[in-house]
Amino acid sequence: MIALYAGAFLLALGLLVLVHELGHYFAARMCGVKVLRFAIGFGRVMWSRRPGSDQTEWAIGLLPLGGYVKMLDEREGPVAASELPRAFNRQPVGRRAFIVVAGPVANLLLAILLYWLVFMTGITELKPRLGVPPQGSPAAVAGIEAGVTVRAVNGKSIASWQDLRWEVMRQTMNAVALELDGTTSQGIPVVYHLNNLRFSLAETEKDPLTPLGLLLYRPRLPAIVGQIMPSSAAAIAGFQADDRMLEIDGKTISEWADVAAAVRNSVGRPLVFTVDRAGQRMNLTAIPQLSGESEARVGRLGIAVKEDASAVTEMTTLVRYSPGEAAIRAVAKTWDTAIISLRMMGRMLTGELSWKNLSGPVTIADYAGQTARLGLSYYLSFIALISISLGVLNLLPVPVLDGGHLMYYLAEFIKGKPLSDRVLAIGQQVGFALLALLMLFAFYNDFNRLFSG
């Protein structure tokens, strides 16, 4: 398991860094700039080669957390007179900006390519089918009934639960009303209006659907145990696969939803489960463990319902498009994700969104492993998302990032001359300090999630 997660993380990270640095490399070559070194990773060099007439060194470092392209530059060492035209610092400001921006753009192009492949080959996702909305929620007030399948949000067509979640999040960042077009379980067209959606961004930062009362439809599943997580409360209590739950604290259980509800509301309190194991009735005592963060903390046994083929068919759909439609949707998905990422970053800076949304290498490695286990389409979608995040992050106007260099070049274009070495040095120090602070937040959030469950 650990090998899968580590391998999926390193493969994703290596691909993202490689594509980013290749963007810089090819842009430099297009502009006639000599590249001295192309490196993936930092620290001790594990492998290197110097092919071609320029003798560019291609190297792989011990620590795969990044990479760089080193170009001929008078600021970093003496340059022969014959090669001065190929020095980076001798290039017009427009060419330097093109070389710098090519890295983040390469990441965005990679995301488009990956989404195109996913949309064209198809991916199995949950249907956008709604369950019973909580009483008093906007969905309940709008009259939404269980079993309705949403087809469009504010006129934008959707095909899956993920589409619904994404489109609602996108719309509620600007609008205060939603129009949901859908069909009932009998195939009758319906339209619902959710008005006056005035809630804080903090309520929707983790799940934009729950505050609206838009819950996923779940078919009735028998209370039969499937997978059991190692070292979980269920494992400690002695649960086994195929145990059928009959009662909890003497109360009859009719479906898996009853089990989930009882466990969710019983953190730290012993529950007595009466189960049927191969025809034998027995009692097992388990104490639900704490899971989640702050107000969202609930009880968890570390147990999953036994898969039901008919339920899977009822809840899922294969989302697939023609090559042309897939390309259009890939570009739109990449653009929307980049814009929302920028908005989220901005709202974290203003305090409208919690800094708990920041994730570091530990969380990314976890998601890499999870998506790799689900299948290639999910893993490629994950890489596309991280590639967009990397591209957007690098375009921020922070010194030491690509966006910081673009900021310098803009100032140089306005002034008509480069910024002083002192200003650049101060900028570097500020940039490193900001990045260090960002990484501290990310690692803190990673370990907080890890140890809080």
From TrEMBL:
Matching InterPro entries: PDZ, PDZ_6, PDZ_sf, Pept_M50_Zn, Peptidase_M50
Source organism superkingdom: Bacteria
Main enzyme class: hydrolase
GO molecular function terms attached to this record: metal ion binding; metalloendopeptidase activity
UniProt membrane topology term: Multi-pass membrane protein
Domain PDZ, chain residue ranges per copy: 114-184, 195-279
Compartments, as annotated in UniProt: Membrane
Cofactor dependency: Zn(2+)
Keyword list, A-Z: Hydrolase, Membrane, Metal-binding, Metalloprotease, Protease, Transmembrane, Transmembrane helix, Zinc
SMART domains: PDZ
GO process terms (BP): proteolysis
EC identifiers of the protein: 3.4.24.-
GO cellular component: membrane
Keyword Nucleotidyltransferase: no
Transmembrane intervals: 6-27, 97-118, 378-401, 422-444
One Pfam family named in its UniProt record: Peptidase_M50
Keyword Transmembrane: yes
Gene3D superfamilies hit by this protein: 2.30.42.10
Main localization, broad class: membrane
Family indicated by similarity: Belongs to the peptidase M50B family.
Protein's UniProt name: Zinc metalloprotease
Organism: Rugosibacter aromaticivorans
